[in-house]
């Protein structure tokens, strides 16, 4: 959990430890706790885990004890009558009790008897169970807060198909909504918001019950229970929620795939079985329909769970849960101690993040709140949902933040966080806006940072989230705080660096030459760099045959990218114009040779960066070759319809036709800029090695320029409008925004940390916080002189001009 880049500020740490000695670290002391963490969580040794709200890491002891237990004790299918089966059943029953005791604070057996635990596959499955089993009818109502997890929102599907009315409301509105005594009504709410950590707890449910005494309450406690006890004994039984959903991996890590629905026995009649019945949930059945019976024992007030646990329970997972709860107790004393520990961390983190300021005094971190202000809010859970802001208080993209956190060894979550309501209220997004985004091709899981119409295009499409849990340490928090300071605080010096550099005077004598010329026939695979003095044809969509082929994942239909499969860099396609072949090589493979002239395969549609394009397949042999090398089932496709996609830029250039490239027809970088990046990296590491840490190939440009006579300043390409390479003229469209892909070493196919980390500090656009390196170009045929088959040639002289001079 130590991170070399972010040495903890020792004074802050000491102050924190003094102030929180009764809450933090379970009485183990700072050193004792750190020791325990490093023994129990070897998996966290080289990373900073800040995503407990997604899942908790698993302590080593659980596995040691579990393997010991199941190796020495015979556990078997609880449906038999053998001694091992009976012992297994008893263990399962004991585990139900443990859940109620440890997580729901019911330490008195009589109180536990008022509740039942139905094991399910997880919180979502529990909510679905309620949705399916609730006796909806015409006139029934289902209400939930707008800022609910999608799993809770999804219950509305069950309600709607059975004639109920559904309403998403603000939390106070839900309390004040008219009472209804006629048909079964279900109110649902999250005890803790998964995206912001705000808590409504049991108190809000009590208020709902007071107002709507006949309604049932479904409580989504998946996030809340991760670090807090839901004290069912602290409220009168009739005012407690009727159904409570949770997942155990969020609390103790292993086992996954197990959760429960806790049901108030007196509300059992509100759960009706669907038509299905099966092994374990019946007492008798005839071979032919219709006779069968439920377990007699399970008629109220018997064990309700028998009616809902179809088939064989995952008994070893339940045994594992028992072991995990034992370990949890042994490491952390009790779940209540976990609450105190994480609250101390949360208070510290919230304060420190709010203190981070830009040089102009404006805040860097904006924390989001799901429910606004309400008297029912409890002290929040250890989750912070936030956006990072520029000095002018514009939002910085969450994907950028996530990528930077990733290369710096943090595990966080960013995006819509399965909670559209939080996103909508944070950025004022209406349901109509959401549908518009969807129709523009956006989806919950893509990498788009900003949405909105062409005019107003800086509405964030996601937020970032960090969260703490039982094994979080003060160093985790301090590391995150220094990470944000290091990369996002704009001090005067960084502002100066991102100011435009002096424009080199355009001159007719060549200022630069084309040092390398590279095309990438297969999208996201290695490049084909041409030898000196060889020339290549250009067309409006780019270099001839650039990004004309792509690889598609056979099962998901998604285009493969080096971001997921860095090994793709090792695949080297070669367009051989003389032999009219596409030759593909890769380490350990015999070359694949395909005809360059179009063959007719099946035409299908494929999705590239939210555009739909028509592509043709190239046959089974090619698919097999790529699938073997990448070890994933994939298929090679070739764009069949010519340019069917268009790139859009802010400037008045209209739209520019492209093939499968991501943004524009041509990408250009310069040698002085690459040299500057290497210089920065060397300075940062205090290492003056001879070898350049970063090779120009990682930027995957088509053109690399080098100064010819006199030196050129780094990043001069940012200030150029037009340039001429040989006979051809190109117009600069925009700077190229960079993502983690620059971290794939194109020679080895391995991921590194640079140059992304360095660029993030030195080359960040003050608006929007995007990293920029290199420029996008379009070909200006009207200003070129190359005739009917225009080409560019390696070694061509390059001159620069401003747009005004040329037109
Ligand atoms: C995690 C979570 C869920 C979904 O839980 P699953 O384990 O994926 O079923 C639902 N609601 C909230 C508040 C959560 O945090």
UniProtKB/TrEMBL annotation:
The modification N6-(pyridoxal phosphate)lysine is found at residue 250. It comes from the Eukaryota. It catalyses: Mo-molybdopterin + L-cysteine + AH2 = thio-Mo-molybdopterin + L-alanine + A + H2O. InterPro entries: Aminotrans_V_dom (IPR000192), MoCF_Sase_C (IPR005302), MoCo_sulfurase (IPR028886), MOCOS_middle (IPR005303), PyrdxlP-dep_Trfase (IPR015424), PyrdxlP-dep_Trfase_major (IPR015421). SUPFAM superfamilies: MOSC N-terminal domain-like, PLP-dependent transferases. Residues 642-801 form the MOSC domain. GO terms for biological process: Mo-molybdopterin cofactor biosynthetic process. Keywords: Molybdenum cofactor biosynthesis, Pyridoxal phosphate, Transferase. Its EC number is 2.8.1.9. The active site is at 418. Its cofactor is pyridoxal 5'-phosphate. GO terms for molecular function: lyase activity; molybdenum cofactor sulfurtransferase activity; molybdenum ion binding; pyridoxal phosphate binding. Sulfurates the molybdenum cofactor. Sulfation of molybdenum is essential for xanthine dehydrogenase (XDH) and aldehyde oxidase (ADO) enzymes in which molybdenum cofactor is liganded by 1 oxygen and 1 sulfur atom in active form. This is Molybdenum cofactor sulfurase. It comes from Mycena albidolilacea.
């Amino acid at each position: 959990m130590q991170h070399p880049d972010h040495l903890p500020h020792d004074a802050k740490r000491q102050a924190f430890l003094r102030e929180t000695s009764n809450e933090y670290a379970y009485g183990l002391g700072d050193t004792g706790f750190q020791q325990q963490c490093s023994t129990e969580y070897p998996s966290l040794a080289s990373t900073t885990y800040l995503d407990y709200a997604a899942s908790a890491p698993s302590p080593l002891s659980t596995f040691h004890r579990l393997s010991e237990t199941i190796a020495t004790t015979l556990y078997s299918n609880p449906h038999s009558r053998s001694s091992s089966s009976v012992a297994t059943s008893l263990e399962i029953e004991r585990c139900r009790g443990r859940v109620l005791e440890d997580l729901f604070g019911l330490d008195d057996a009589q109180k536990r008897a008022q509740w039942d635990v139905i094991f399910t596959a997880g919180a979502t499955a529990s909510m679905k169970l309620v949705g399916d089993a609730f006796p909806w009818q015409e006139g029934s109502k289902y209400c939930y807060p707008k800022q609910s997890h999608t799993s809770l929102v999804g219950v509305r599907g069950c309600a709607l198909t059975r004639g109920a009315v559904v309403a998403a409301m603000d939390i106070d509105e839900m309390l004040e909504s008219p009472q209804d005594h006629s048909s079964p009504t279900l109110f649902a709410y999250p005890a803790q918001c998964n995206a912001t950590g705000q808590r409504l707890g049991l108190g809000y449910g009590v208020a709902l019950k007071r107002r709507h005494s006949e309604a049932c309450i479904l409580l989504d406690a998946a996030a809340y229970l991760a670090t807090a006890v839901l004290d069912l004994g602290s409220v009168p039984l009739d005012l407690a929620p009727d159904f409570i959903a949770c997942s155990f991996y969020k609390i103790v890590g292993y086992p996954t795939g197990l959760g429960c629905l806790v049901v108030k026995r007196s509300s059992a009649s509100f759960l009706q079985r669907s038509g299905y019945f099966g092994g374990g949930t019946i007492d008798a059945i005839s071979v032919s329909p219709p006779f069968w019976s439920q377990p007699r024992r399970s008629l109220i007030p018997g064990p309700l769970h028998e009616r809902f646990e179809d088939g064989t329970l995952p008994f070893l997972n339940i045994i594992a849960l028992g072991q995990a709860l034992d370990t949890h107790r042994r490491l952390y004393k009790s779940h209540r101690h976990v609450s105190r520990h994480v609250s101390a961390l949360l208070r510290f983190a919230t304060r420190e993040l709010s203190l981070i300021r830009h040089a102009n005094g404006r805040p860097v971190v904006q924390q989001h709140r799901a429910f606004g202000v309400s008297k029912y809010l409890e002290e929040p859970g250890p989750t912070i949902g936030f956006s990072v802001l520029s000095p002018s208080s514009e939002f910085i993209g969450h994907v950028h933040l996530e990528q930077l956190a990733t290369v710096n060894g943090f595990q966080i979550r960013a995006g819509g966080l399965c909670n559209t309501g939080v996103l909508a209220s944070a950025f004022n997004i209406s349901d109509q806006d959401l549908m518009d985004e969807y129709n523009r091709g956006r989806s919950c899981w893509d990498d788009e940072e900003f949405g909105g119409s062409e005019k107003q295009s800086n509405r964030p499409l996601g937020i970032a989230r960090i969260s703490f849990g039982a094994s979080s340490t003060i160093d985790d928090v301090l590391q995150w705080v220094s990470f944000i300071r290091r990369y996002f605080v704009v001090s005067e010096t960084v502002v100066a660096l991102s100011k435009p550099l002096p424009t080199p005077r355009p001159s007719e004598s060549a200022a630069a030459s084309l040092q390398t010329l590279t095309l990438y026939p297969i999208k996201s695979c290695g490049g084909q760099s041409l030898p000196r003095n060889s020339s290549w044809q250009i067309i409006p969509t780019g270099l001839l045959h650039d990004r004309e082929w792509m690889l598609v994942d056979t099962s998901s239909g998604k285009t493969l990218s080096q971001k997921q499969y860095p090994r793709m860099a090792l695949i080297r396609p070669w367009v051989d114009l003389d032999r009219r072949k596409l030759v593909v090589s890769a380490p350990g493979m015999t070359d694949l040779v395909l005809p360059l002239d179009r063959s007719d395969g099946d035409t299908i549609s494929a999705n590239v960066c939210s555009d739909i394009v028509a592509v043709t397949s190239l046959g089974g042999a090619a698919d097999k070759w790529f699938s073997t090398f990448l070890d994933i089932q994939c298929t090679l496709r070739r764009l069949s319809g010519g340019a069917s996609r268009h790139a859009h830029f802010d400037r008045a250039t209209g739209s520019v036709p492209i093939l499968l490239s991501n943004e524009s027809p041509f990408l250009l970088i310069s040698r002085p800029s690459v040299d500057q990046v290497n210089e920065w990296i060397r300075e940062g590491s205090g290492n003056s090695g001879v070898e350049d840490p970063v090779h120009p190939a990682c930027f995957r440009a088509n053109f690399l320029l080098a100064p010819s006579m006199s030196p050129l300043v780094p990043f001069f390409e940012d200030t150029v409008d037009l340039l001429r390479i040989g006979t051809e003229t190109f117009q600069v469209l925009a700077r190229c925004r960079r993502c983690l892909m620059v971290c794939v070493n194109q020679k080895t196919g391995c991921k590194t940390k640079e140059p992304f980390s360095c660029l993030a500090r030195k080359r960040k656009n003050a608006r929007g916080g995007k990293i920029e390196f290199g420029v996008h170009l379009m070909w200006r045929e009207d200003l070129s002189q190359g005739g009917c088959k225009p080409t560019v040639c390696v070694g061509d002289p390059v001159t620069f001009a401003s747009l005004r001079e040329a037109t």
